[in-house]
Amino acid sequence: MFGKKRATQAVNAVVARGVNYELSLAERAGRSERRAWLVAGVAMAMAMVLMAGYFHLLPLKEKVPYLVMADPYTGTATVARLVGDFQDPAITTQEAVNKSNVAQFVLARESYDTGIIGQQNWRQTLAMAGARVAPAFRTLHAESNPRRPYNQYGNKFAIRIRILSISLIPGTQGRPPRGATVRFQRSLFNKLDGSSQVMDGKIATMEFIYDPDLKFDERDRLLNPLGFLVTDYRVDNDYGVPPAPEPVFPGPQEIIAPGSRGHGHGEGGTIAPAGHVPVAGDEPTLASPGGLQ
């Protein structure tokens, strides 16, 4: 009787150990499965984050076109990145205004003509020229200067200006531009036959400011509404070969009817425009310490 009881207890102990082993295996498998799902979940989350990052950085590879422009005459090469809308290129209002004022000053300062055009260039230049720039312009056109343009070209020729490029000089520490470099070409225009001949190329370097305290009359305010003032100005020779001139079409020639008298300044002849030398009365007046005296 006692032997059977001991045998039953031994069997129960073995069965219990077997059950515990199976439970251990099942528990271990459950823990392994939970661990696997946890790792899979973390990996999936990381994959989603990486995918979102890739979509945010797309395109991973972008082809950016660059345009290399080489001047066939000077050999100067410039590299430009082609971005934006080519049909409507972006330009800031400030940049457009600065370039417009710079171009107007250079065109008026470097051109030469007689009559109303010469007077307009005279007023435009002095309306934008500062105290250190205006005297040189007056001296250039003074009657005491033997090399003044009127003595060289008279009223039969004019100097036309063709601006090739305008580069604004950035200000320091993120400030707006206060300088510019302008490449331009001078051509001698014959008023009698309409022909044009390239003279040379020049590079103008200038400094400018906007002075809101400049006092103009109404006529000069129309020429310089924003108080654009050139404080320093210098012109150097552009030693590169100038580009080809623009085509110029000669004006219609007057046909003299048979029997008309002469070919001079009488009836039936061609009358040359009268010359005009700017005088002191044509100058704009500025009431500002930074303007013209």
SSE order and pairing:
Layout: H1 2-57, E1 66-70, E2 77-81, H2 93-110, H3 115-128, H4 134-140, H5 149-153, E3 157-169, E4 179-190, E5 196-210, H6 218-223, E6 228-237
Antiparallel strand pairs: 1-2, 3-4, 4-5, 5-6
Helices, by number, come to 6
CATH class (first level) name of the domain at 94-248 and 278-282: Alpha Beta
Instruction: Give me the CATH fold name of the domain at 94-248 and 278-282.
Output: Nuclear Transport Factor 2, Chain: A
Q: Strands of the biggest beta sheet: in what spatial order?
A: 3-4-5-6
Class by SSE composition: alpha+beta
Any idea what the radius of gyration is?
42 Å
Average residue pLDDT: 76
Distance between the termini: 138 Å
Q: Poorly predicted ranges (pLDDT <50, ≥5 residues)?
A: 259-277, 287-293
How helix-rich are the residues, as a percent range? 25-40%
- Beta-strand share of residues: 15-25%
Q: Give the CA-based shape.
A: rod-shaped
H-E string:
HEEHHHHEEEHE
